[in-house]
Write a structure and sequence with these properties.
Length: 227
């Protein structure tokens, strides 16, 4: 779902009004997408192995099974667009172009990591790659991502903020405060809800009255589409 700069209702196409035509990709683009997804999968498999061996301290939330989400989104972005997410963040880092060696160094607490070994799995960032974390507090990144969009509008640039969060975080109050602000001020932000069907150990059907998350922005006039 996205809040756009356009204010006229007719210009905001929802999933029920109009769907954009499928994007045709070149073979080179498809192969790069496959490479990026495979990189994330292999990286996460190794991270899980090292975590089991005790080489990675703290928490280590893996992105296995969700690789296509961030890779597909990244293909639609342009230089300067910002990405922010929660604690299941290794895949997003790699998709934005952060080096696998640097991410793994951070996971293992080494000085060569992106946060000099002090951030660990959930607290890495790279201003150069426009990746703003990695956040350990559930849904905290949604309001921060909305703030990035506000900064873009204030500076009058054409950058878009992409805020990723999960089905569990979708029930947090600050998400709806962010939706309201984004639509009220027409902020350039896209909210991506990654529904992996479980918020830690709680299934989505036991925690969410509305399980079609593309409809979560309806009351704020924010269009959404389920992919």
């Amino acid at each position: 779902m996205a809040a756009t700069k356009k204010s006229a209702p007719a210009e905001q196409a929802s999933s029920s009004d109009a769907k954009s035509a499928p994007q045709d990709f070149t073979r080179e683009q498809e192969m790069r997408a496959l490479r990026d997804m495979l990189l994330i999968r292999r990286f996460e498999e190794k991270a899980g192995q090292l975590y089991g061996m005790g080489a990675i301290g703290g928490f280590c939330h893996l992105y296995i099974g969700q690789e296509a989400v961030v890779v597909g989104m990244q293909m639609a972005l342009k230089q300067g667009d910002q990405v922010i997410t929660g604690y299941r963040d290794h895949g997003h880092m790699l998709a934005t172009g952060m080096e696998a060696n640097g991410v793994m160094a951070e996971l293992t607490g080494r000085r060569g990591g992106y946060s000099k070994g002090k951030g660990g799995s959930m607290h890495m960032f790279s201003r150069e790659k426009h990746f703003y974390g990695g956040h350990g507090i559930v849904a905290a990144q949604v309001s921060l991502g909305t703030g990035l969009a506000f900064a873009n509008r204030y500076r009058e640039n054409d950058s878009v903020s992409i805020a990723y969060f999960g089905d569990g975080a979708a029930n947090q109050g600050q998400v709806y405060e962010s939706f309201n602000m984004a639509e009220l001020w027409k902020l350039p932000v896209v909210y991506v809800i990654e529904n992996n069907r479980y918020a830690m150990g709680t299934s989505v059907t036991r925690s969410s009255a509305q399980t079609d998350f593309s409809k979560r922005g309806i009351s704020f006039n924010i269009p959404g589409e389920q992919v």
